[in-house]
# Entry
Amino acid sequence: MFTSRAEYRLLLRQDNADIRLTPKAWDLGLVDASQWQTVRDKIGAIAAARSAASMTKVDNLRVDQLLRRPNFDITQLPAQLLQDFSLPVWEQVETDLKYEGYIRRQEDTIARAEKAESRSIPDSVDYAHVRGLRMEARQKFAAVRPATLGQAGRISGITPADIALLTIHLQRSSPTS
# Structure
């Protein structure tokens, strides 16, 4: 998979692939106990390093605050902290802290998309009355009669703009709006 083309590339990074995928592989029986333990140790070390960064101050600023800054990197950490945890652990902590806001925003986007995915479309919807909808989209929606917005979005030839217009129509015609 090309992560540069992935929809959620901030979450699907190569530096966190082992942390994201090994638990799933373990559940499926695809990794042995030593691999699983190695990743569990890494996860624990990252959590401990983050905790240490939030409690340690350098020049009256917490290390976790410093690591969020674009002009500060792990090479500027106090020697004691660098000795306490491995370089890959600190690199992961630094990356997570620097991108924390963006990652949280992406997770919120995913949650909203999942909620919209399952939103039902009433059988009574007359697609001819959805304002701005392309004729091709109206015909495809009428022929397929998707039950949810997720199904509607997977119809061949349907664009994100078509889904947005349908969503607006559903919100306006909903009795609870």
Q: What stands out?
A: The two ends are 41 Å apart (CA to CA). The chain is about 60% helix and 0% strand. Residues 137 and 143 are 10 Å apart (CA to CA). Residues 6-110 form a domain with the Arc Repressor Mutant, subunit A fold (CATH 1.10.10).
